[in-house]
Amino acid sequence: SAVISQKPSRDICQRGTSLTIQCQVDSQVTMMFWYRQQPGQSLTLIATANQGSEATYESGFVIDKFPISRPNLTFSTLTVSNMSPEDSSIYLCSATQGAVTDTQYFGPGTRLTVL
Amino acid sequence: GENVEQHPSTLSVQEGDSAVIKCTYSDSASNYFPWYKQELGKGPQLIIDIRSNVGEKKDQRIAVTLNKTAKHFSLHITETQPEDSAVYFCAASTSPGGGADGLTFGKGTHLIIQP
Q: Tens digits of per-residue pLDDT, B23-80?
């Protein structure tokens, strides 16, 4: 199974600023995703991070607000731009391996608080 | 898009008893159904999954059943133990294989095991 780490694990930020979250996988993976989990709530898919091309965003999420990079098969970043208190959430990275399995492994999450 | 409903939101059972959590999905094209366990401050951990060509799958004390006609699937935990206390999420995906698509999650069930 893939082991996923995220940095930072938590942060407190001022409104109007931006934060970049890093996701590192210990082995090459085919797909990487970013999710948001608001306090006490379920997970919502933000986007699919495509290697070497622009991310694919879900309805309600836009590139200007959540720019994503995936420069190689083991690393991705998510930036939360021009933050407001409503962006306070846990941001989770996930990944799948291989061409025949659907199993998604999740990172530990980044807990973001916007003041 | 896909909509996943999960019940109950909170479930309290006596240690040693069984727990059942139920989910329904809306998109008949969904073909992959994982269950995740999330402990406080951690990312979701896959506990069992099932594809639509299988009606039931079991792994020790955990089992999942799928009814494609009714579009619902359930998680069964037998002989519950204190360490089973956590939030459990069901999810669905229309992935053609290889985990190409992100997951749509239910709202979660807080399982409490009473000693």
A: 999 999 999 999 999 999 999 999 999 988 889 999 999 999 999 999 999 999 999 9
Task: Tell me the chain A residues in contact with residue B108 when contact means C-beta distances shorter than 8 Å.
Answer: 41-42
Average of per-residue pLDDT across B88-95: 92
* B98 contacts in chain A (CB < 8 Å): 30-31, 96, 98-102
pLDDT recorded at residue A105 = 92
Interface test with A, best of B6, B105, B107, B110 (most A CBs within 10 A): B105
- Mark B15-46 as b/e (b = at least 16 C-beta within 10 Å): eeeebbbbbbbeeeebbbbbbbbbeeeebbee
